[in-house]
């Protein structure tokens, strides 16, 4: 577990925290969160309730620039997207010889001012290799990047030191199937909540969310939080509850 002391908080500067969900196109939400909302308006509906969303489709296939422009146009002026890096880079090439793939992906991004961090999720079988990580970090462009390893071997100062040297955030991940490595390595923090008991399913209790709120408060820096417990619709409710606990019940654009 990565939890600290359970405490509900108020008065935290809301402009430092972006809370949202990992993706938005879930048929499971149709009869709940999206009840009565046409599918073409799902993104704008969710963006009216949260401050950020992770784009996941970029992980599976290259997205055309016009898609990013369309998504940006459907969200409020101060909205921010995080974008998941392609599995071609992280899972197929496993961070090796990625120059061309990385260049193609970066050229596709067309979010403008709504571009937030790039998320690099590693496969569970990828062990920590200092030289490999160093080489990959060295080719990343300027901007905010977040690294989500899923192997216990990354729980080492050598890994944390590399991220700090490049101001790259380690992703604190809560899930039952891969390690929760609690470390803040950049001038911003990145948290993914995948479901504590059942991966992508289980809802977080108010007590658990209070514990995460305390941790976010103690980090005392810009923080991006994404709920990935999407399969039964808990993500949206949990996101709104965590925002209230942190004293930011609704986005500033509401």
Global geometry:
globular
CATH fold topology: TIM Barrel
Helix content: 25-40%
The end-to-end span amounts to 34 Å
CATH class: Alpha Beta
Largest sheet: 8 strands, parallel, barrel
Unreliable segments of 5+ consecutive residues: 3-15, 249-254
Q: What is the alpha-carbon Rg in Å?
A: 17 Å
The average pLDDT score comes to 92
Structural class category:
alpha/beta
Give me the CATH superfamily: Protein of unknown function UPF0759
What fraction of residues sit in β-strands? 15-25%
Tell me the number of strands: 8
Q: Please work out how many helical segments DSSP would assign.
A: 9
Number of domains: 1
Walk me through the structure.
This protein has 254 residues and is α/β, with parallel strands linked by helices. The chain has a single domain (14-245), classed as Alpha-Beta Barrel (TIM Barrel), CATH 3.20.20. 32% of the residues lie in helices and 17% in strands. The chain is built from nine helices and eight strands. The protein has helices at 42-47, 57-60, 65-73, 87-92, 99-108, 130-139, 157-166, 206-219, 234-245, and strands spanning 17-22, 52-55, 80-84, 115-121, 145-148, 169-174, 188-193, 222-227. It has an eight-stranded parallel barrel. Strand 5, helix 7 and strand 6 form a beta-alpha-beta unit. Helix 6 (130-139) runs parallel beside helix 7 and helix 8 (206-219) crosses helix 9 (234-245). The longest helix is centred in the C-terminal third of the chain and has 14 residues, at 206-219. The radius of gyration is 17 Å and the shape is globular. The relative contact order is 0.20.
């Amino acid at each position: 577990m990565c939890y600290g002391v359970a405490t509900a908080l108020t008065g935290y500067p809301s402009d430092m925290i972006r809370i949202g969900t990992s993706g938005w196109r879930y048929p499971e939400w149709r009869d709940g969160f999206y009840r009565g909302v046409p599918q073409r308006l799902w993104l704008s509906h969710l963006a009216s309730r949260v401050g950020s969303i992770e784009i996941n489709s970029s992980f599976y296939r290259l997205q055309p620039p016009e898609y990013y422009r369309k998504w940006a146009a459907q969200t409020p002026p101060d909205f921010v997207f995080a974008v998941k890096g392609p599995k071609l880079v992280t899972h197929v090439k496993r961070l090796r010889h990625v120059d061309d793939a990385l260049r193609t992906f970066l050229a596709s991004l067309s979010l403008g001012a709504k571009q937030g961090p790039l998320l690099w999720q590693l496969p569970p079988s990828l062990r920590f290799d200092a030289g490999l990580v160093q080489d990959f970090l060295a080719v990343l462009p300027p901007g905010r990047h977040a690294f989500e390893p899923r192997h216990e071997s990354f729980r080492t100062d050598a890994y944390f030191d590399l991220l700090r040297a490049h101001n790259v955030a380690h992703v604190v991940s809560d899930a039952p199937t891969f390690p929760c490595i609690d470390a803040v390595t950049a001038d911003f923090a990145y948290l993914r909540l995948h479901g504590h008991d059942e991966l992508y399913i289980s809802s977080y209790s108010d007590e658990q969310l209070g514990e995460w709120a305390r941790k976010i408060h103690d980090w005392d820096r810009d923080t991006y939080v994404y709920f990935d417990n999407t399969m039964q619709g808990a993500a949206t409710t949990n996101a709104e509850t965590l925002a209230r606990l942190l004293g930011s019940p609704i986005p500033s654009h509401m």
